[in-house]
Request: fold
Amino acid sequence: MSKTATSNPPNDLILKRFRFSREDYHLLEKVGLLTEDSPVELINGEIIEMSPINSLHAGTVKRLLRFLSNSLADQYLIGAQDPIDLGEYSEPEPDLSILKYREDTYIDSHPKATDILLLIEVADSSLEKDRTVKLPLYAKADIPETWIVNLQDAKIEVYQNPGKEKYQEVQIFQSGDTISHQLFGDLSVEAILK
Reply:
């Protein structure tokens, strides 16, 4: 009797993945395997390569940063491509974050989910990753609001009311629309997505 090949490997051949903690992740930097300039972020225990930033992406981040800085004055702090602490296994670097004001300006520790009022991801080539990987991570961490500035379709996707792994409310804004927000007033979509 001959045996046929199966598509499922025997239990002793199943590969197990190592899950990096935030402590492990920072140790890799300390020993020189990663640098502050390494284009990576820690998501759910995995070190993920970040997409390269083209000029459209960088310019849009700068445009939003200028608008938010002018609108929010000294009430809040704004992080630009800075790490946030989302527990033992995640330290993503959203494009922008609006944070509760803290006297130490977060020098003593990265902002945690409870410090964050709004996250903004500017997405071109990273659109699918931002929607399917980062957005559920933010919802699960109970970040109250996340935006995806969708450069591919020239839209701003606003996600609110976080649930277990997804946001319960989604609004889509496009050119000609104005987003009215309790933190900073009115924002013209066209002014951001020129």
Q: What stands out?
A: The longest helix spans residues 55-72. The mean pLDDT is 90. Residues 78 and 98 are 5 Å apart (CA to CA).
